[in-house]
Amino acid sequence: MAALRLGDTAPNFSAMTTEGQIMFHEWLGDKWGILFSHPADFTPVCTTELGMVSKLKDEFDKRNTRVIGLSVDPVESHHEWINDINETQNTTVNFPMIADENKYVSSLYDMIHPNADDKLTVRSVFIVGPDKKIKLTLTYPASTGRDFNEILRALDSLQLTTSFGVATPVNWNDGDDCIIVNSINDEDAAKKFPKGFKKIKPYLRITPQPNK
Ligand code: BEZ
């Protein structure tokens, strides 16, 4: 199966999780979603990542976003490991983890990269919009833990840029100035962005973040 690309529909699936059996699309409802894989239970980098995701629950909630983890370990192992995550990361795991023992979901989402490891998932991230389309993907190797603040930052950009006629520049953070997309001419930009804009070049026009 070809790798999933931006704009593709995130494949639906049924899976066993630490919070029971789910159907992915129904579980997402009308929210944004983040599906992320980690290589294996009882491993150090994964332990820190899952602790951090738990601590960021309020941030995901604020962004109307549900988060779900995945590894190819069984659900009993996930439950045992969660005790360790809670203990060592000073948190309470508050999101479901898929027990993808038969590798069905990891195959569907191409999360096993055999030249890196033929048995375990890499660190994949899929951000899915309320329309169930894939909006962003990331792939990290097992040895490199992800920066979930960057994932929140990218989510802020995705949610802003799908609703307003802007794009976000390098190192943008919520509240920073934005770029007016080139499909909007100056006349329409003046109406659409009442805070005004600075025209540095015809293709580079900067405006304060429209929803702030
Ligand atoms: C880890 O989470 O620490 C890890 C998992 C698999 C391979 C290497 C590191």
What does this structure look like?
It contains 7 helices and 11 strands. By secondary structure, the chain is an alpha+beta fold. It folds into 2 domains: 14-146, Glutaredoxin, CATH 3.40.30; 164-207, 2-Layer Sandwich (Antioxidant, Horf6, Chain A, domain 2). The termini are far apart. Bound molecules: benzoic acid (BEZ). Residues 39-40, 43-46, 142-143 line the site of benzoic acid.
For the largest beta sheet, what order do the strands appear in spatially? 5-4-3-6-7
Mean pLDDT: 97
Determine the CATH superfamily of the largest domain: Glutaredoxin
Helix content: 25-40%
Number of strands: 11
The overall number of domains is 2
> How large is the radius of gyration?
19 Å
Second CATH tier, the architecture of the largest domain: 3-Layer(aba) Sandwich
Query: By helix and strand content, what is the structural category?
Result: alpha+beta
The unique ligands bound to this protein are: benzoic acid
* CATH topology tier name of the largest domain: Glutaredoxin
Termini gap: 42 Å
Largest sheet: 5 strands, mixed
Tally of alpha and pi helices: 7
Shape: elongated
CATH class of the largest domain: Alpha Beta
- Low-confidence runs of at least 5 consecutive residues: none
* Pattern of helices and strands: EEHEHHEHEHEEHEEHEE
